[in-house]
Every structure is written in C-alpha cells, then in structure tokens.
Amino acid sequence: MCGIVGVTGVSKALPYLLQGLQKLEYRGYDSAGVYLTDGAGQDAFIKEKGRVSQLAAKAEKNGFEGTAGIAHTRWATHGNVSIENAHPQKSADNRFYLVHNGVIENYQELKDIYLNNVTLVSQTDTEIAVQLVAKFAAEGMTTEAAFRKMISLLAGNSAYGFLLIDQQEPETLYAAKKKSPLLVGLSDHGNAVTSDATAMIDLTKEFIDLQDGDLAIVKPDQVTIYDEQEQKVDRPSFTLTIDPEDTDKGAYPYYMLKEIDEQAVVTRKIAGHYFGENGELQGIGCAITDKMAEADRLYIVAAGTSYHAGLVGKRYFEQWANLPTEVHIASEFAYDQPKLSDKPFFIFLSQSGETADSREVLDNIKKQGYPALTIANVMNSTLTREADFALPLLAGPEIAVASTKAYTAQILVQAILASALGEPGFDLKAELAKVAVEIQAITDEKEVFQQIAADALTDQRSAFYLGRGLDAAVALEAALKLKEISYIQTEGFAAGELKHGTISLIEEGTPVFALLTQSKTAGLLRGEVAQVAARGAKTFIFASKDLAKEGDAFVLPQVQELLMPLLAVIPAQLIAYYATLARDLDVDRPRNLAKSVTVQ
Ligand code: M6R
Questions:
Q1: Is 2 a catalytic residue?
Q2: Average of per-residue pLDDT across 158-186
Q3: Distance of CA 562 to CAs 165, 183, 306, 317, 447, Å?
Q4: What is the pTM of this model?
Q5: 384 lines ligand 1 (CB under 6 A)
Q6: 178 is known as an active-site residue
Q7: Measured from the CA of 595, which atom of ligand 1 is nearest?
Q8: What is the rounded CA–CA span in Å between residue 417 and residue 372?
C-alpha cells in the first residue's frame, strides 16, 4: 500500500527518493509525490498521478535535487486519485510538508474543531494533520511540540506512519509511528526514514525499527528517539541481510515468474533451515511446541493467499498432531469472534507481517491473554514482533502482488511445525527433497501451461477451479491467482457443491480446471468433471501420477498425497501468469491491489 521514504544530509536527495519509491512500487499505489529542500532556502514540490516514472520525469525536468526530502506513494483511501490528494500534503502557510501511511479515524471531527478557517485543497485526512501542525506552530509551539500535539489528538484506533519536514528546519526529518511500519536508516553520509527497509538499501543496510508511539528526530548526523512517554530511548539497530539482487528481476520479464521459479529453491532452503543433517528438527524452540501442546485447539488466522495456505495447514495439524484446527479469515474474526475453546493457540500466517486485518485480531486476542505464533516472510514486521513467537518463511522478498512462493513456504513451514508436534508417518525431510525436485520439473514445463492458457482463457470472462478435500483448498488459491491478475472472474469450488447451484453457470466453452490428487475422492471428482463437460464446459484435469488417466491435461509428479498441494498449485500459478501476459496486462501490479494491505 502507501510507501514512505525520506533522506537528509545526502549529496543529492532526489535519486535516493526516486529509487526508494521505485522499490516500493510493488506494494501498490496510484499517485506519488516528493518534497525536496537544500538547507539554503531552495525547494521543490512535485506530485503526479500514475507511475513513479511519471513523477521522475517531472522531477528531472524540474532539475532540483536537494540534500533532504520526503517522498510517498499513495494508495487512495480518503479522496480519489488526484494530484491534490497525493502526498506530501502541505500546510496553507507553505511551511510544513507531510507524508502519511494509515488512516486518521477522527479527521472530520478534528477539522470541524480546529480548522474551520483553513481552506483545504485536498480530501485527505493527511492534510488535516499537516494543517494542525501548522496551526499549533503558528500559535508559538516548536515543531516537535506541534507534531506531538497533532498526534495526541488522533483517535485511539488511528494508524499512522508520519514523516514531516519544516521548511524552516530543512535538514530535520520528524517521524512518528503507530500500527504502521517506519524505520530510521543510518549511514555516515546521511540518514533516512522509510516504511520498508528495502527501499533504502542503496543508502544503507543499517536500520532502527521504530516502535508504536515513538517519535524520531532525524538530522544528517544525529538521530533522537522518544518513546510514547516522551522519554529518550536507545533503540537497537539491525543490519538488513538481503542482497540488492534479491529485489531485482534479473533476466525475468516479471517478478511473478521469477518467484514461481524460486519455489524449488525455497523448498530446499526451508528444509535446510528446519532440519539438521541427520533429519532432526531445529529452529522451532521448545517454548513454541510446549505451548502448542498445551492447547486444545488451534486457530489459524490470515487473509487472502495466506488464508488459503492455512486451509492446507489445518490438515497437517489435525492429522499429524491430533490438534483440532479452525482456519479463519482475519477481517471476519476481528469483528465476529467465534466462541473459543478453553485453551486456544493462535497462528497468524502472513507474507508481509503487516496485514491490518490480522493485526487487529492479534491485538484483540492478546488483550484476552491468548498465546500466538506468527509465521511470516518478513521477520521484524509488526505481526512477528507482537506475537509471543515467530517463525520465518524464508521465501526471500516477494515483490509481485500475486503471492506464489510465500504460499508454498507457508504450507511447508506448517507441515514442519505439525511434524514437530506429531507424526507424519513418513520421512518428511526426504519427501521435501523430492517435492523440490518435482516443483522444478513442473516449472520446467512452462510451454504446456502457456498453451493451456491460450487454449482455455483467451476470450473467456469466467472460469472454474474444482477439487475435493485438499484439492478444494488449492482450488481457492488457484482461482484467486487467476482472477486477481487476469481479471477473469474465477471461482474455486469444492466440486461436490456444484450440483447445489453453481453448475447452472456452466455453458458452452466455460473453462473448468480440476485438481485431482486425493485418492479418496478421485472417482467422485472425475464424475463431477464429466457432469460439467456434458453441459459444454471445456475441462482440464491436472491429476497426480497415481490417479492420472489418459486424456488428462497434465500429470503431476507423485509425492505423499498430503503434500500434493505444493505441486498442484504450480500449474495454476503459471496459467494465471500466461493468461495475464496474453491479455497484455501488468502481471506484477494488478489494478486496485496492494502487496501489503495495511488498512482495514
Ligand atoms: O501479507 P499477507 O500474507 O498477510 O497478505 C494477505 C493477502 O493480502 C495476500 O495473501 C493476498 O491475498 C495475495 N497478495 C494475493 O496473491
């Protein structure tokens, strides 16, 4: 979603800010802006709708590069997509410039109470915040005090990451955060503030993660941080371990394809991390397994693709660890909490670790005193920090909005965790080695899926994925992949439900993909495929080797049946990719979507 970058004390601010915004593009946005200053009275304020490249063109034409500045990519919440609503927002007296991630719940009320005589130029809650800072400064407060006062007026549920520049102190950045990530970057040739450390890796790899309630004053050679009680604090810094190349596309045309291909390597990396040389489990502390063993029920909470991975993980926890498991959509659970068991244990699944819906649930259940584990790709994220325990997904940066390798990683880590609590009945480590080989074998057959996409989806407006049992769970993810990037309306369906209504949607040529990897229901599923074929559907069966029959569209290599989701999802990811490419759409950045959904 929205992204923040800021630098001070550098020789040229603009290149750092534009590169930073480019690195944040994957998160999704619809406008961008930058404010630059040089400490000697010169400044530039440039905003643009659309892509960062359009902002860059405008900024480069302007020519001013500054030595400090703040910049932002905005994903519209309050107010439509327009230059006026893009950030930075500035105060009416042209003194303060502010970028903001998050939502100010009581902005209308604040406007009515404090800003009746100010003419607003945007529809954003952020403009209210910057006008308030200007008002309090005009009344005689220091910038720090005015910034604090504005923050103190925000309703308790408001979320924010703020970065402010006062034109009268052009080398100082004022930053504050609550429920929205913000980090300070440290270097010998200038300091930075960013909502995502990877955006600033061209300047530094050393960062301080600000905590909720922190206010930081960042100067070229000095950083001062105050906690919620306004006490000076020393926050530890950490060194980012990713390589700049990890966030590059390399020779790939799109991140999504690179990330699909990385799944074999990710599988090996996860197995290598969680299994020792002799097959012993490692990296999952006893504190986690002991706490889970005390529980009478697991509650997996997640959103989107991560929710779908949870539906697969449920099977491992129930079957191997004998732990009843419920899987919940975070945005539903947050406001309609079901009746819980006596000793619940919560697992939050998330690629980003920043999903606002999941954070809301974590907040709620912490208040009720329940233990929680977050399994996330981005360690040090809010969900990992705020849960009692955290385990890494180790998938490496996932940049494409459509999640692929994080899904397989989530299934893998859940399988390994369940095996730590119980008994899979086979050598999981050895089987995962086989899974990695077979994922590679499937991704090596890209032309097959490109052809299927061309045969099935060129002119279609709708499609179906069917399955039973674990295949039904994968069908949901397969459908999400196809619809979110190709805009083909796709339903993932438990095949047995078809005859209870949905089969009426099947017409001549409707593409129906069936995932057939579960022996118990293979016969029934073939029957359901025959029923839709008899009504005109164009059917494609992706069957595991043991269950395949002549005429199936693709034979998936055979691994342990419970691990087949790790293979069955790959064709669906590739079909989604090629169908989208054929429609000449931006595979990595589908419309209206953000990579990290940090608002509820
Ligand atoms: O970062 P998270 O895993 O918590 O994100 C949850 C969903 O927003 C995410 O999985 C989304 O559905 C995918 N990007 C879709 O491919």
A1: yes
A2: 94
A3: 54, 40, 18, 12, 27
A4: 0.79
A5: no
A6: no
A7: 14
A8: 14
